Amino acid sequence: MRHWKKGLVYLLTGTILLTAGGCGSSEGESGSGTSDSGEFDINSAATDEKTRTIQKLIDDRFYYDIDPTRQEEAYYDGMLNGLGDKYARYYTPEEFAKTMEEDSGEYVGIGCTVSQRAESREIYVVEPMRGSPAEEAGLLPEDVFVEIDGVALTTGMELDEVVKMIRGSANSTAHLKMYREGEDDFLEFDVPRRKVQNITVDYEMLENGMGYIKISDFIDNTSEQFKEGVDYLIGKGASAIIFDIRNNPGGFTDEATEMVDYIVPDNTVPAGGDPEKPGLLLEIRDKEDRVMFKSYTEDGHEVTLPMAILMNSNSASSSEIFIGCLRDYGKVVMVGEKSYGKGIVQQTFPLQDGSAVKMTIASYFLPAGSNIHEQGIEPDVEVKLPIEKLRILNRLPHNEDPQLIKAIEVLGGTPLPEPETTEQPETTEQPGTTEQPETTEQPGTTETTEE
Fold first, then answer.
1. 23, 75, 168, 220 - which has most CB atoms within 10 Å?
2. Residue 114 and residue 445 in contact, taking contact as beta carbons nearer than 8 Å
3. What is the three-class DSSP state of 403?
């Protein structure tokens, strides 16, 4: 699968020139940029003429000074925005470099996974990373961004745009105004930006002898961290393993399938799967339903312990590949809440000048043949997590986590000891100024199934 990510990235070398020119239509052209078939044609003489006309009007009549860099970025942004694909975007060279840095496991920022709600368009915290500036400052899951460094957020802003505002240079500070449900006023936080080590897998032996693995993202090093965790727990004699995929927005498909391959035996056929495709993990198909890529089990490794998965509505994309593959092969019991429902694949294409474009290129299909886009995956055992516990999920004691408690129960494990104290863990908050609150889907960057 690593070949998919690194081998199927095409270099686009076309150059678009913006120049001023005369007005009017060329002979034989309708004056619009559509071809005879009714499709927009960027290379038509009419499109070129219209572009020149608009540019000349700007040059001659526009009142304010022109920022050429901003104008160029907006031009390419417009090409991607015109697709109507909410995951499509244009990256400047600086933005693309930062994205590559984060996906490699280290980046400068506040250390926080964020997402955007499909209906309200609000940008909210999915989960602060353990030990990150965001966690240290007191940001909690479901907190909604209202203002960043004095700039108020609007419903017209895209997730990537807001992420760019949150990030910045090392040793700077992000001043955040946040809405938190249940608070009368906005909260304000000064969160230092620093280099964040993106540890995406945490694991431990629970007191009852079961193993617990928390997976927060799927980036370049996630599968290696995952295998280390599985081996460690098996070596310690774990009686079962519980995978926690809650609030995981996705990432690289090859990391997810490599992790599944480590658990599932080679050359078996899942219930309802195609007997002609033993060991199938994933099929990626383009808009013509042509198979672009297939991934199969091949590493010769299997985990035979009882296993469960914790999931919720923020488990998306590559998380759903991980969940769905293990479900189809009958390896896990799924506990929690219905997953997000993202069954499409994006690919990022680097351009010659260091910039890049990302767009949806295909749908993916799980081993038994299903596509879960806009449907999600239903758990075997539904357990709701109250909002007050979701907000402190990364600090919630295991013996106060109803979804984890249920997973232990369905696996036949010994209940965890009762908490020694009834006090909730502290959630350090920065003093907030008092103003009027507003209210609180789409996972989130960290990007969803990206390559």
1. 220
2. yes
3. helix
